[in-house]
Amino acid sequence: MSAGCCRISPRPAPSPEGCQAMDAPVPKNVTVGPVPTGYYRWEPEEDDVLICRAVREETHDVKTFVFAPRHKRQFEFVSGQFLTFEFEIAGETIHRCYTISSPPTRPDTVSITVKRVPGGPVSNFLHAEFQPGMMLKATVPMGVFSWSGMQATKYLFISGGSGITPMMSMTRASFDLALISDIAFVHAARSPADIIFRDELDYMSRRNRSIRPTFIVEDDAPRESWGGYRGRLDGNKLAMICPDFRERTVFVCGPAPFMKAVKTTLKEAGFDMGRYFQESFNFDDFTEEAQEKITEAAEEIDSGVRIFQLEFTKTGRTIECPEGMTVLEAARRAGMRLPSSCSKGLCGTCKSKLTAGSVEMKHGGGIRQREIDAGMALLCCSKPKTDLVIER
């Protein structure tokens, strides 16, 4: 960045998808010289409110929501990262994280693409009630599921359903920057009508031959018979679609059973799993992997340690938590299904109010200091130091 450029809280630009510098108005009370190539980054600590600029229908049950800061700012992130939003629904505060589907090469807005889930309070609120002009609070982009900084030239993206969003951000960035990257993009859907971003992927492939999307569906759509690949993705189909898949770096995102099946297929095919990356977020399913981690944690705890009482005010449940175990792990062992996602203190989905007691919390950035000072905690990375009363 050239001398004389003013930038709030500078940090290294992400790679390989750096945000392009653009002119921006100077905030009040800031005295600077000419700003020929500068821009101001969106800072949630200063203003964490985003305004919805557009709502776009992708399929019959999938919509994209486009957001911008209330004031002139630009976003800085890498493809594959997510935003955590705060929703007020029916008098309850709910946190949900959504992967950014737009590319960092278009930094004036960010987009999330949300599938409507039967019974899902947030997805149904967004689809039924959320309109342009409405506002939400959000955190800074976070997450490590990204190809940023990688030197590979051949990629294989495999997605199922709404798991297409991080791959779409990467592919859009590659298209915008004309990167010399060979991208084989395999997406699985229920029917042709459920293929998210189908037209855009086809357009990008026509304009850039290094982007090659392939779709696999299970059934025909009411108005379209499918002439392409059908059924579930397996080793035979993968070899036909992408014969050189063993030479590629693979990114996978989708429902937990889908990712597990893809991982098994690649292992059985002799793929080098050192070049395998999958998104670990899982809002609804209590996976076998999570159960194994909880079991391991329980086995490591000495039977002579102190047992704390955890009272959940909204559910009326009181459970026990051994010293050294997180609140989330103890709740799951007791059969409670608390909102959670990353289990690493990143996303903020499990953020809850402690009305009594204290915890030891080692988080990854999913909570602000002012929230901690107000008694909030991330249950996935909080270990009780006393008995607790939790607003859940």
Order of strands across the widest beta sheet? 4-3-6-1-2-5
Structural class by sheet pairing and helices: alpha/beta
Largest sheet: 6 strands, antiparallel
| Beta-strand percent range | 25-35%
- From the spread of the alpha carbons, the general shape counts as globular
Q: Roughly how many Å apart are the termini?
A: 47 Å
Beta strands, count: 19
Number of helices: 8
Low-pLDDT stretches are: 1-16, 18-37, 283-302
Average pLDDT: 84
InterPro entries: 2Fe-2S_ferredoxin-like_sf, 2Fe-2S_ferredoxin-type, 2Fe2S_fd_BS, Beta-grasp_dom_sf, Cbr1-like_FAD-bd_dom, FAD-bd_FR_type, Flavoprot_Pyr_Nucl_cyt_Rdtase, FNR_nucleotide-bd
Pfam families: FAD_binding_6, Fer2, NAD_binding_1
Domain 2Fe-2S ferredoxin-type: 308-392
Domain FAD-binding FR-type: 44-148
Please describe what this structure looks like.
It is a single chain. The protein has 392 residues and is of the alpha/beta class. The chain has helices spanning 121-129, 164-177, 198-207, 235-241, 256-268, 288-300, 327-333, 369-373; strands spanning 49-59, 62-69, 82-89, 92-99, 110-115, 135-138, 154-160, 182-189, 211-217, 229-230, 249-253, 276-278, 307-312, 317-322, 351-356, 359-361, 376-378, 382-384, 388-390. The chain has a 6-stranded antiparallel sheet, with helices on one face. Strands 10-9-8-7-11-12 form a 6-stranded parallel sheet, with helices on both faces. The longest helix has 14 residues, at 164-177. The chain is globular, with a radius of gyration of 22 Å. Residues 1-16, 18-37 and 283-302 have low confidence and may be disordered. Keywords: 2Fe-2S, FAD, Flavoprotein, Iron, Iron-sulfur, Metal-binding, Oxidoreductase. Residues 44-148 form the FAD-binding FR-type domain. This is Hybrid-cluster NAD(P)-dependent oxidoreductase. Residues 308-392 form the 2Fe-2S ferredoxin-type domain. InterPro entries: 2Fe-2S_ferredoxin-like_sf, 2Fe-2S_ferredoxin-type, 2Fe2S_fd_BS, Beta-grasp_dom_sf, Cbr1-like_FAD-bd_dom, FAD-bd_FR_type, Flavoprot_Pyr_Nucl_cyt_Rdtase, FNR_nucleotide-bd.
